[in-house]
Amino acid sequence: MLNDILAFLLSIFLIAPLQSELASRLENAPRQVVTDVTACVTQATPALLARASQDPWWAISTGIGIWIGRLPAEATLRDAASGCGPALNAARPFLNQG
């Protein structure tokens, strides 16, 4: 039960800001790019939750960093799921807009 509560909190304070940041920056990207990056977020979620449960300070600082724009969401995603490299490379032109 404690793990479920922790996963819920991490989803709200870490995963949701990550998804929100990427979604807002990819609003002009082709559908396939958005789909691939969304799949990577899903792929990275277990690794992010595992790291956050082992290092709560990392989770807090990362969530806040993404939320205030100090930490690029794609860097966190790339660190969590190295297999996301191709999707993030395809998304790079859209992530750099603005």
Strand content: under 5%
How much is the radius of gyration in Å? 13 Å
Would you list the SSEs in sequence order as H and E? HHHHH
Overall 3D geometry? globular
How much is the average pLDDT? 86
Per DSSP E runs of 2 or more residues, the count of β-strands stands at 0
Low-confidence stretches: none
**Helix content percent band:** over 70%
Total of helices:
5
SSE-based structural type: mainly alpha
* Main sheet overview: none
Alpha carbon gap, first and last residue: 42 Å
How would you sum up this structure, described in words?
Helix 1 packs antiparallel against helix 2 (31-54). With 98 residues, this protein is mainly α. The protein has helices spanning 2-25, 31-54, 56-68, 73-80, 85-95. The protein contains 5 helices and no strands. The model has no long low-confidence stretch (mean pLDDT 86). The protein is globular and about 40 Å long. The N and C termini lie far apart (42 Å).
What keyword list fits this structure?
globular; 0% strand; single chain; 98 residues; 5 helices; mainly alpha
Short summary of the structure?
The chain has 5 helices and no strands.
Question: How do the strands and helices of this protein lay out in sequence?
Answer:
Blueprint: H1 2-25, H2 31-54, H3 56-68, H4 73-80, H5 85-95
